[in-house]
Amino acid sequence: MIAFMVAGTESGVGGAGMKRWCAVLIFSIALPACGARTIQDELGRTVQVAEHPHRIVCLMPSVVDDVYSLGAGTDVIGVPDYTKYPPEAKTKRSIGLPLTPSIETIVDLHPDLVLGDADMNSPDTMQALERLGIPVFMVAPHSFEDIYRSLASIGQALNREEPARELIGRLRAREAAVRRRVSGKPVVNLLMPEGFDPVITIGKHAFVTGLIEIAGGRSVTSDLPNDWQDISLEAVMARAPEALLLVRNSAMSAEQILSRPGWSSLPAVKNKRIFYIDDRIELPCPVVFDALEELAEELHP
After folding, report:
1. Cis peptide preceding 198, ω within 30 of 0
2. Which candidate, 1, 161, 247, 274, has a CA 20 to 30 Å from the CA of 294?
3. Cα 34 to the chain's mean position, in Å?
4. Cβ of 37: how many Cβ atoms within 10 Å?
């Protein structure tokens, strides 16, 4: 590893502005190391990683749970804000917001691998770290099935392929158990709104859409082409959801929905059929299986 000492300015990631550094920044450029491996991430990029990475920075809360679930939690040295799962990960050093992490903090941690989510982390972050010689490995989970793929990918990046296979086997068994539990029961047609004016909700390829189907429900917006998409209230009313699915302690509540013009005419609101689930349902990682089991129990008690 070669270190260059320079002083200057740092461009804020994602256009967040300019921050002048008064201190000296160390740029560490990693040269091909003995035992290093060359692998491909889920963007098809070639990434050179250490044989056994032991200083890992995670850019997304879901990736933190992936790494811990693979038994590499002690190797994690940096996590983003909003990390909740597992609880012990919250004691790790914060690198800032997932969309605008502190490059300075990440460099200061001297990671030998940074793991991120291609859909949630800025390309600017990835490029800034790579210019400093820090290897960045990206996953891109969209569908529910992609959660398994990303665990296998991270298992390869961490040289923990056998633990990844074992973990995936356990999670697939949990999915199969839920499918058996709801088999033959009436499908609950529901809407999962995330905002008003326009309504923000899940589309065809979102992993949450697949999770709802496994749990014995059906998203009435499963025909929408994007993972997350805006939709008008008129389009929601035309779909006539028989139930609503809300995330606990989020910006959407039953009280807010009742106070909004037009919502009271929905069958779900008329029948007061509103289900609540916690925020684990929003994370494409192993904790989402807890949400899957909970939702199946709520839809089919």
Report:
1. yes
2. 161
3. 33
4. 15
**Does 251 score more than 90 pLDDT?**
no
- The answer to whether the CB of 30 falls within 8 A of the CB of 85 is no
Q: What tens digit of pLDDT does each residue of 265-285 get?
A: 999 999 999 999 999 999 999
**Sequence-ordered strand ranges (E) for the chain:** 2-6, 9-11, 18-20, 25-29, 37-40, 46-49, 56-58, 76-79, 93-94, 113-117, 136-139, 188-191, 193-195, 199-202, 217-219, 228-231, 243-247, 274-277
Q: Which pLDDT does position 35 carry in this prediction?
A: 67
Beta strands at 9-11 and 188-191: parallel, antiparallel or unpaired: unpaired
Count structural domains, the chain: 2
| Interval 123-135 mean pLDDT | 96
* Domain-embedded: residue 22: no
Give the domain range for residue 199.
186-299
Residue the block writes with tokens 């390309």: 123
* Residue 245 CA: distances (Å) to CA of 14, 193, 239: 32, 7, 15
Rounded percentage of the chain residues whose pLDDT exceeds 90: 77
Instruction: Supply the angle between the helices 161-182 and 288-299 in degrees, to the nearest 10.
Output: 10
Mean pLDDT for all residues in the chain: 88
Do 244 and 283 lie in one domain? The reply is: yes
In a domain, residue 247? The reply is yes
Residue 21 has pLDDT above 80, yes or no: no
